Amino acid sequence: MTKEHGCTETDRAPFPMIRHSNGGRSAANTIVPQLQKGMRFGFVASSDNHRGFPGAFGEGVVGVWAKDLSRASLFEAIRARRTYAATGDRIALEVTLNGQSMGSDVAKTADREIDIRVEAQDSIAMIELVRNGQVIERHFPEDHSSAVKLPGRAKCRVQYGWGPWAALDLGRTCQWDMSLRLDKGRFLQAIPCFQSGPYEEQMQDRLRAVSQRELQLQSFTSRVQCYAEDPTKAVVCEMEGDPDSVLTLQLRQPVEQTVEARLADLVEDNVVTFTGVFTSESYIVHRLLGPTEYSAKLRWSDQRPRAAADWYYVRVTQHNGQLAWSSPIWVG
Length: 332
Prior knowledge:
Blueprint: E1 2-3, E2 6-7, H1 31-36, E3 61-64, H2 71-79, E4 83-86, E5 92-97, E6 100-101, E7 105-106, E8 111-119, E9 124-131, E10 134-139, E11 152-162, E12 173-193, E13 206-211, E14 214-222, E15 232-253, E16 257-262, H3 263-266, E17 271-274, E18 281-285, H4 291-294, E19 295-303, E20 310-318, E21 323-326, E22 329-331
Parallel strand pairs: 7-22
Antiparallel strand pairs: 1-2, 3-4, 4-21, 5-6, 5-8, 8-19, 9-10, 9-20, 11-15, 11-18, 12-14, 12-15, 13-14, 15-16, 17-18, 20-21, 20-22
């Protein structure tokens, strides 16, 4: 569905195939026309960037609904098409039709109940249900979401990098060493957003949970070979706290620096910090997201008494441009 070269949902999908490739997208060879011909296959994504960096952010990642993480279970799930494709953010996407999982063949029936569960890593802009290549339902969570409620759960993206401008020919690699601490609260999970370039055996990103209140990160960013000219990486932290909980970012490299922010203040504003004078690297502690912004549960019903055969899949779009697609479900 998507990889370092671009997206092949249709010839009009975002991320056209212009990077590191011999040409643009052939409309007939994209996914929707092939499904319309009657082919049956699941959706996956992977980086295909030749650097051996699994899960490279932004270049495609595959999600698998497996019984466990054993080799046998993973391959069983892939062969059963219980897979979904995402561009970079690890969006959890679960879709069933009449209780049958994505990738399934469902016997002919007029009544179809499609259940969708989404756990995103940024605010969800739109969830779409596609039938036979046409969108038949759209849901906009922001029409129903509420502001972050504290005490409670929230997500915060800590993004770091930028630095010397490519236009000034100031490309360089920057080493990062930092700790994230949460006073009067706890981290529930931390999701990495690590891209691949440049890939060096001795420079690998390492994210470690010291405790429920502290994370340690050793990483690097560079304008050399960075994907999509975006010299940044990030960690998405899901946390639980109250208005007076304090998130502290303590930097040891590239400079010694400490930034503190109350969760109540991060509801309305982010924190942008520079590590030095002009062209130095910088980092952002983004505004908080509430659960109603990054998660959703939906049920859509479709009545098709005269249809011979149909196929459905779900597309999720976040406000930051990251997407996910479920494998199709075929009926009849």
